[in-house]
Predict the structure of FAS1 domain-containing protein.
Amino acid sequence: MNTTQISIACTFLFLCVTLAHAQAGYGATSDSGYGSALLALSSPATELPLPPTPAPAPEPIPEYVNLTDLLSVAGPFSTFLHYLESTKLIETLQTQANDTEEGITLFVPKDTAFSNLKKPSLSNLTSDQLKQLCLFHALPHYYSLSDFKNLSGSGPVNTLAGGAYTLNFTDDSGTVHIGSGWTNTLVSSSVHAKDPVAIYQVNKVLLPEAIFGTDIPPPAPAPAPVAVPDVAPVADGPDADGGKGKGKGVGSDTAARASTPSSSHRVTGWRTVVMVAVCGGLVVVL
Ligand SMILES: *[C@@H]1O[C@H](CO)[C@@H](O)[C@H](O)[C@H]1NC(C)=O
Ligand SMILES: *[C@@H]1O[C@H](CO)[C@@H](O)[C@H](O)[C@H]1NC(C)=O
Ligand SMILES: *[C@@H]1O[C@H](CO)[C@@H](O)[C@H](O)[C@H]1NC(C)=O
Ligand SMILES: *[C@@H]1O[C@H](CO)[C@@H](O)[C@H](O)[C@H]1NC(C)=O
Ligand SMILES: *[C@@H]1O[C@H](CO)[C@@H](O)[C@H](O)[C@H]1NC(C)=O
C-alpha cells in the first residue's frame, strides 16, 4: 500500500465505525459500551462522547385516594359515611389511608345492612361506642383479597378500634368470611383494592363483643324472608369483581416493557459488530 491507499483506508474505516456507532443509537445503554470498546481498538485517537446514562425510573407514587369521594360514589354507603363524618373519624381513616407504608383495609356495610339491623340496635350507643363500632370496620394495614389466606385461621386480627376489638377471618377458596362473634358475614365485593387502600363491601354491620357482650343469641334455625337481601347475588361476589388480578396485570405489563428494549439493544449490538467486521475486511482488501 502507498500513502494514498493507506489514508483512503483509514478514512473509510473511520466512516464505517462512525456509521456503525450511530446505528447503535443513543438508547442502547447496555451494548454501547461494547461498541465504544471496538471503536477504541480500531482508532484509539478518536474520542466520541458516551451516550448519557438514563436516570433510573423513580418509584411510582401511589395515587392519593380520597375516602369521602370514593364512599360517596360507591355503595350506597351513605349511612356508614354519615357516621364517619359525624364522628370526624373520616379524618382518622384518611390519615391511615395516606400512610403508604401500612395503608388501610376498610369493610363497608351497605345502607341496607344498617336498615336491616333491628337487634341489637345502634340507637342506644354512646358516641364513644359508635366511634369504636366504626373503627372496628378498619384494619391498620392494606390486605389484598389473596392476603386473607394468610389471616385465615391465624386467630383474632386487631382492628383500628384496638384492644379487644378483633375480627376473625376465614378464607373459603377465595371468599373471605368475617366473624365478630355477633356477626358472620363475607366480603361481597371489592370496591377498591390497590395498595395502600383496600375497601370491601360487606352485607352486615360488624358488631363487636366488646360493646354488645358475649351473650349472643343463637342464629335463627330457619332463614327468615328478611334474610334474603343478605344473600349476595352472584354478580356481587368477589369472583365477579376482578380486583384480585389487578396486581398481577401491572406486574406482567412492566415485565413486557422491560424486555422489549433490551432485546432491541442486543440486535443493534450485533449489527455494529457485523458492520465493523465488514469494514475491516474491506480495508484489508484495499
Ligand atoms: C375529598 O373529597 C371530598 C368530597 O368530594 C372533598 O370535599 C374534599 O375536599 C376532598 N379532600 C381532599 C383532601 O381532596
Ligand atoms: C391525605 O393526603 C392528601 C394528599 O396528599 C392531603 O390533601 C390530605 O390533607 C391528607 N389527609 C389527611 C387526613 O392526612
Ligand atoms: C335503648 O334504650 C331504651 C331506653 O333507654 C330501652 O328501652 C331500649 O330497650 C334500649 N334498646 C336496646 C336495643 O338496648
Ligand atoms: C403469607 O404466607 C406465606 C407463607 O406462609 C409467606 O411467604 C407470605 O409472606 C405471607 N404473606 C403475607 C402478606 O403475610
Ligand atoms: C376467633 O378465633 C379464636 C380462635 O382462633 C376464637 O377463640 C375466638 O372466639 C374467635 N372470636 C370470634 C369473635 O369469633
Notes: The chain is about 45% helix and 15% strand. Strands lie at 104-109, 138-139, 157-158, 166-172, 175-179, 184-194, 197-202. The chain has two domains: 1-52, 67-216+227-243.
